[in-house]
Each structure stands twice: as structure tokens, then as C-alpha cells.
Amino acid sequence: MAGEQKPSSNLLEQFILLAKGTSGSALTALISQVLEAPGVYVFGELLELANVQECIPYSVLLKDLEMRNLRELEDLIIEAVYTDIIQGKLDQRNQLLEVDFCIGRDIRKKDINNIVKTLHEWCDGCEAVLLGIEQQVLRANQYKENHSRTQQQVEAEVRKRTSVTFSRVSLFDPSFCDSWCRCNSHQQTGTGLAGYRCG
């Protein structure tokens, strides 16, 4: 098992052999093929070939990066150099970028465990957030039910007391109507009980 090679490494080796004797537009086409090849995830060996590490004309960069002017392009290259995305030199006289090194999208085998661990931690964090949201929804629903139940109890108690009060008082007693209207001041002045005018 240890002596077996993965198909992706065999495929990459084939591309590397082809790239050693290729240059110009044929090399560009080959690199595009490698990037689109299924199962090839490591490109470092290909990028380290001497004929791959060559100068890139400003005109190609301007076109491919859709930049408007040289100043904008040079600013981008300088920023990429300072952030260690690429290592190289600007040849302003010949309008070339000489690339010595660039960060690829390769994943080193020693980094895989760390990536898996980070992704697991992220998933655990997402699950914790979802659990917290579900608990908040349950608490909010419980609060809503309790509030609704309390409101119904209060309204039932008010109706009960109001009906008891009305049954004990003579409906034609003007003093009751006056006091009742004052207690219910949120209602507009209108006709009281039994035609008596409150106010």
C-alpha cells in the first residue's frame, strides 16, 4: 500500500514531463489543461519548472486582470509582493513582471489535519449557534403562550367582575352610571346605561 502511487500524482507527473519540453502558447494551454484536470490538486512541482517561471508582459496582465492603466497594475503587483502572494521583480523599462515564486492553491499533506480540524470546529460552532437559536425560539413561543394565557385570564376576570357589578347595581341608578363612566375614561362620552347620558 505504501508503494502505491495515486492516479493524480501519475497524471501530474505526465503533465510535468510534457511541460519540460514545451514553451509559449503550448505551455499556456498545457497549464490550463492541468488546472482543469479532475483529481489534480497539487501544482507546485509544475510551477517550479524553469520554463514555467518566466516573465509576464504588462500587456498580458492588463488584459487578463482587466486593469485600466499601468499605475493601477503596478500598485496591485507591489501589494501582492508586500503580502508575499508573489515574489519577483518589476521590469518597468521592458514592461515585464519577472515571477520567482507565487502562492499556489496547493494543500500540503501536513496541512490536511489542521484544515479538517478547523472545519470540524466551524461545524461545531454552527451547530451551537443553531441550538441557541432553537432555544430562543422555544423561549419566545413559551413567553407568547404565557402572555396570551394571562391576557385571556385577565379579560375573563374583567368580564366576570363587570357582569357581577352590573347584576348588583340598579341599571337605572344615575350615580352608578356617573362613577362607571369616570372609571372607564378611555371610552368617549356617550350614551350610558338605560339611556342615561354620561359625562
From TrEMBL:
> Where does the record place it?
Cytoplasm; Nucleus
Query: By its UniProt entry, which InterPro entries does this protein fall under?
Result: COPS7/eIF3m (IPR045237), CSN7_helixI (IPR041481), PCI_dom (IPR000717)
Provide the alphabetized UniProt keywords: Coiled coil, Cytoplasm, Nucleus, Signalosome
Which Pfam families does the record cross-reference, listed alphabetically?
CSN7_HB_subdom (PF22061), CSN7a_helixI (PF18392), PCI (PF01399)
Residue ranges the record marks as coiled coil: 133-160
Q: Name one GO cellular component term.
A: cytoplasm
Q: What does this protein do?
A: Component of the COP9 signalosome complex (CSN), a complex involved in various cellular and developmental processes. The CSN complex is an essential regulator of the ubiquitin (Ubl) conjugation pathway by mediating the deneddylation of the cullin subunits of SCF-type E3 ligase complexes, leading to decrease the Ubl ligase activity of SCF-type complexes such as SCF, CSA or DDB2. The complex is also involved in phosphorylation of p53/TP53, JUN, I-kappa-B-alpha/NFKBIA, ITPK1 and IRF8/ICSBP, possibly via its association with CK2 and PKD kinases.
A biological-process GO annotation? COP9 signalosome assembly
Hey, which family's this protein in?
Belongs to the CSN7/EIF3M family. CSN7 subfamily.
Identification of the protein by name: COP9 signalosome subunit 7B
